[in-house]
Specification:
Number of strands: 19
Radius of gyration: 24 Å
Distance between the termini: 35 Å
Strand content: 15-25%
Shape: globular
Number of helices: 14
Helix content: 25-40%
Structural class: alpha/beta
Length: about 475
Amino acid sequence: MTPPDPNPNPDQPLDLAGIGIGPFNLSLACLAHGIPGLRTAFYDQRPAFHWHPGLMIEGTTLQVPFLADLVTLADPTSPWSFLNYLKARGRLFPFYLAERFHLHRAEYDGYCRWVSEQLPGLHFSHQIDGARWNPERALFEIDYTQLAPSGETHTLGRTYARHLVLGVGSAPHVPAPLRPLAHTPDVPLWHSADYLDHRSQLLAAGHVTVVGSGQSGAEVFLDLLRNRPHGAERLHWLARTPAFAPMEYSKLGLEQFTPDYTRYFHALPEAVRDQLLPSQWQLYKGIDHDTIAAIHDELYQRTLHGGWPDAVLTPGVTVRTAGRVAATRVELHLEHIQQGTRSRLTTDAVVLATGYRERSVDTLLAALAPYIRRDAAERPRIDEHHRLVLDPTVTGSVYVQNAERHTHGVGAPDLGLAAWRSAVILNSLTGTATFPLPARTAFTTFGLDPRPGPGKLPDQRDRLARTRT
């Protein structure tokens, strides 16, 4: 059982309370741990850290280099680096000799779990029920439920904090036409987030359809292809995108995942940002070059003795509607966007590799709703320091992680910017350059205005020195 909250006293509040313990808040917790006198605690309703367990397909790798760990790009000397993890596990020389730049996904999960099991101030099995601002105390009050191993309520509690950070992550997205089936018991339709839980059923199914052209869809399709009989693969792979396209991985293209581009994007008008994001889909929705090559190689191998594999790969297709056929089959009603044609596909199982969406925090922050300033689309406004823009009467800050793509661009969910964003948040929180940040991070100059610096420190209203008085 997680130890009880160490800071239930409003006279001794936390400086920062974190809600959610995914990679981003874990990064923040690591860097905050090295700041003397900073009182923090992080909460997650799960019993332990696990990163996308349903997609730990053997051999899959991250799309970012190992230097994009929890801390290195902000503090290479941190004891919570991936290299220190390897050293602690006696694996530093094997990793060195392997000459690997991109980690196995399972290895990254193991690294994060190693951190989560040793880093103080992490409270798993704690479900946050709500947060509100107490103007008399100038503190946030956070109510939580401590869960027993069975998942039932163990105790109720409350903690107090001067500032909050939300790292609640994203949730699997099911397109509207497929939601009724996805919520119907016994229908063989699952999101790719749960792929490994249903892999044996999918391999045994007569015909399988994968929907979605991103990295997850490609990995699921490749794994099914490799493990189904030659000549009787019976696979369909459908994608809404106009092609099964590679992820942008050129050196200058990747500069759109730098702090320079993030600052540029944030300064653009809201309408321009909204128009720009959909056009950048290949930056984060494309497929790794090696995965595309592996799929083609596997398909090619199955033609060596004549014939073609029983696998249909069709881009440019949307699923208009879907229904159940007999007891266990699914019928997909399809439309080809460019041709303007429609057809039906009956299949025995469907995997939805349809991505993820930011989790809504409206319920969690219902009591703060009157204080949150919103844009023209009713989304929270978020400043350059990754803080919700709140009514000035709220003197505490609410920071967000991976909930600001509409204001900070395609890098918001990218692991490569985790340590940098954590450093920005902590610099804002402390009001000092606790983590010196580079003034320039890209060869590309984005825009015609003079290049901005790493972001000025927040004004005196946000400094811990002030809020502690």
